[in-house]
UniProtKB/TrEMBL annotation:
It comes from Winslowiella iniecta. The lineage of its organism: Bacteria, Pseudomonadati, Pseudomonadota, Gammaproteobacteria, Enterobacterales. Residues 148-205 form the HTH luxR-type domain. GO terms for molecular function: DNA binding. This is LuxR family transcriptional regulator. Gene3D superfamilies: Winged helix-like DNA-binding domain superfamily/Winged helix DNA-binding domain. The keyword Cell division does not apply. It comes from the Bacteria. The keyword DNA-binding applies.
Amino acid sequence: MSANLKDSLQMLIRFWENSAEPWGAKDNQSRFIYANKKYHSLLALPAHFSVEGRLDGELPASTADFQDAFQNHDRMVERLLDRVTSIEIHPFENHAWLQPWFFDKYPLIDERGICRGTIFHGRPVDNLILTSLNKIKLPESLVFTPPSSLFSKREWEVLFYILHAFSSLEISHKLHLSQRTVCNITQSIYKKAGVSCKRGIIEYCHDNKISNYIPQSFFERCQSLPLISE
């Protein structure tokens, strides 16, 4: 870690130290340069634990298992020289339940225009208004209660992933079902909606304003998902 790089962030660090939201910075090897008190609290890190010079995988936190994903996000920021946002789902603040948080990453560019690393900022997901969620194409205000009783709980789960452009194989991995079972559930959904194809069910859900449901099971495991706008 370059001491000069941290020195160049001192003005921002003074703000971050007083912020009620998690802020920090990493170098271009994804090693922490700095993280504020709120970030330490969010990850429930031990008292006096220093993140400086460490990789995500070296932190005693549930996020450690997602080091590869975080580094991919960092490299994307450095390549695009623009913000990259992910939704992080973990047992934050040492809670027994999982919570979703947005994490924005920005390029840390020096006076010569060279990207020296990334700045990160966490935001709580309060209203669940997402521009995109992995493969979501349209802005949605997501709800947790099934919009109707037309479909079963499992059908709503499968439908959620269908609407967000996942293949039957991807859905089977997400829900730990066989691909044949997913196909059978999909056909049941089509039959109940009176459609015969994926395009038909997408149009049906949009027309009936039932495309904004997100199943609770989506938040039943830790995840790190990039939000990619097209």
